[in-house]
Design a protein that fits this description.
- The protein has 485 residues and is of the alpha/beta class.
- The chain contains 13 helices and 28 strands.
- The protein has two domains: 4-376, ANL, N-terminal domain (Rossmann fold), CATH 3.40.50.12780; 386-484, GMP Synthetase, Chain A, domain 3, CATH 3.30.300.30.
- β27 (422-430), α12 and β28 form a beta-alpha-beta unit.
- α6 packs across α7.
- The longest helix has 17 residues, at 32-48.
- It is globular and about 65 Å long.
Length: 485
Amino acid sequence: MSVVSLSKILTYWAERKPDDIVIAHDDQTITWAEFDRRTNRLARAYMDLGVGQNDFVTIALPNSIEFFESCFAAWKAGATPQPISAKLPKFERDQIIEIGAPKLVVGVTAQEIDGAQALPVGYEANSLLSDAPLDEATAISFKAMTSGGSTGRPKLIVSKNPAEVDPEETPLNLGAEKSVLVPGPLYHNGPFLWSMYPLFKGCQITITTRFDAAQTLALIEKWKVDMIYLVPTMMQRIWNLPDEERLKYDLSSLKALWHLAAPCPAWLKEAYIDWLGADVIMELYGGTEGTGTTVITGSEWLAHRGSVGKPVETCEIKIVGDNGEILPPGEVGEVFLRPKTGPGTTYHYIGAEAKTIDGGWESLGDLGYMDEEGYLYLSDRLTDMILSGGANIYPAEVEAAIDAFPGVRSSAVIGLPHEDLGNAIHGIVDAPAGDVTEEALLEHLNERLVRYKVPRTLEFVLEPLRDDAGKVRRKSLRADRVKAS
């Protein structure tokens, strides 16, 4: 079948099953026909505010049906949705708006931003606007995700995939018209893709306001879920439920549990394979940039314990040594990825420049090796980026916020081992005068950083944390604190 514009995909499915539920959230549901009509009207409201072809629409909405409506209204207007956290502090939100220059920001009031049109949470399009189908309009990019930056400022990762889809393709080991549960924050790339792609295929999507372990199992049973998206932190919270709670739900409908975004402890992965079956457990490794991906099934993992899988057919991977040489199987080096369509074909940055080596190879900052069969194993992170609860956190971004507080000379942010999150954010603060209080600093940080980036613990020191060249040795600082714990 030929591709369908995302501006028309709802109509495609609404014509086939108008009264079926498309999205369930808490006690709310919406049918395909209603969803199609509401987003037609909302798209017209956006267009009346100046949203047009290839504009960005920044979406600062919590997990909700309204979030999906805003994305599809943007696509129907020929624009690109650009999701951000609804809890983003004004300082960080303003930086994203400055670099992205969206035509519209949804989820804030006009008084909260400058330089762009705004619509508040709960906005309802004028009922006098038509809900009839609009003309087809296909954005050149179907998403623009936000990332923290190694320079301390955010960047946008703009997909080069146009806003169109073949509704008969079946990615992610999922057939069309199934039931999918995504209990993660939709402004993150993983939950966004794992909810949107199945929706494009006619699946029913169930989302939650926030993750709750018992609720997740209950929803699998209630909606007879075929596929779920989780990160290892969620998996561990489910596993930590008392056995009588965890085992009382009917999970027999589940065909695929995808986990990604952070390393999964081997014991936890094996526990899930024993519990749900090897054919159900699927893992993916890759980045928002789409430069390369590996996938591994539970059965493959049992034969290649610790691997994150083989490269998918659209990309290639190589392991590079300290001197730029390609390393043989079994030797650890930096992992580089490249799409077979060529460098620069999957994304472009706004607010940053891609870092590549000869031939357009890019790194996600991981160390690892490949075995003789081409399976990839990750061993450590080369970059200072911290994975906490499945979220990527750049120390420089948090340090910039700390350093902006009066009395702070320098700071270093590291991740310390945490049973639930994998890593907990720890801030080391050089405040030589000794007059910076933890309470005041945290109040300052909460105004500048989204909650999950704010350090869970702070440590105050009196000696400089950076050398004469302005460099900070985060790895040694982390090693010292892990050894002392």
